[in-house]
Amino acid sequence: MSGALAWATAFAPASSGNVAIGFDILGFAVDALGDRVTVSRTARRGVAISSVTGVAGKLPSDPAQNTAGRALLAMQESLDPGFGFDMRIEKGIPLGSGLGGSAASAVGAVVAANALLSAPCEKLELLKFAMQGEKVASGSLHVDNIAPSLFGGLVLTVGIDHPRVKRIPVPDRIRAVIVHPHMFLATREARAILKRSVDLSDFVWQTANLAGFISGCYTNDLDMIRESFQDVVIEPQRQALIPGFPQVRAAAMTAGALGCSISGAGPTLFAWALEEDAPRVLEAMRAQFAHQSVPLDEWVIGLESEGARVVASG
Ligand code: HSE
Questions:
Q1: 12 located within any domain
Q2: Is 265's C-beta closer than 6 angstroms to any atom of ligand 1?
Q3: What pLDDT digit, counting tens, does each position of 242-285 carry?
């Protein structure tokens, strides 16, 4: 009887976009933190935001300018459910962290609102609404945070107008080590510095790495994953935005990581490592960041997760 619900609260996990070699198309969910969005039905049509609390500071309360608000407006315009949405957003993901904070708010909003509908949408439909929200935040329609936050796990998305989503299996011994330095980096700015063209040799190398990485995941080939876990296009252009990045990456690799790169647009960095190596990799990354004298949050997580879900309703 989901159509009879008056309100629902959804948890939408953080996410790490790009995963080194899949710029804008590959991402994994980071279930250790996330946003909670409560959506209530209102008699009056339209979308309202009654509160934004948590770690994000001041966010736009005009629904058209807010990622979650824009996603719900897109949902209303498309479905016209005959009632309105009022939303309360609890931010658990710092903005400008590279952990998919804007995507999580948009995903949380559409998952919560979906629970109020008499004919709920499939996740793929929700993805399209949430993408409209992400566009407000970063100025572009990229899906590498939205899709893993919604579906969970490591996710590849192909296409924008008619996206196809594929959950990629990850060998179960692999963990993600995530280190978030308390710095703000705007995705919009980190995208604006990128060159519009790519050298042919870099294109070949990056394509091989993406193919190698995906096939390594499917075939449990750790050597292939390690060998192909390198971004030769985006990371070299962005690394100057993150003080100490080359040292942190080198330390992670020396400590046994399969790969280490920038999470989304940064400044969070992540590494993948075997379960037994993950504590040593984390320690190595932390030690290098210590030179920057910046506070850190850190997590070691598994790569399997269920994605955004309704956690309360009434
Ligand atoms: N793929 C996007 C980027 C992710 O790197 O700009 C932003 O979180």
A1: yes
A2: yes
A3: 999 999 999 999 999 999 999 999 999 999 999 999 999 999 99
Q: Which of 10-14, 17-21, 160-164 has the lowest mean pLDDT?
A: 160-164
Decide: 175 in ligand 1 pocket, CB within 6 A: no
What is the pTM (predicted TM-score) of this model? 0.96
Query: Which atom of ligand 1 lies closest to the CA of 238?
Result: 5
Please report the atom of ligand 1 found closest to the CA of residue 100: 8
Rg (CA), the chain: 19
pLDDT over threshold 90, residue 290: no
What is the average pLDDT score of the chain? 95
Question: Ligand 1 in contact with 88 (CB < 6 A)?
Answer: no
**Residue 307 located in a structural domain:** no
Which domain-ending residue is among 126, 145, 167?
A: 167
The reply to whether 259 and 279 lie within a common domain is: yes
Edge to edge, the sheet with strand 296-302 lists 259-262, 269-274, 174-181, 296-302
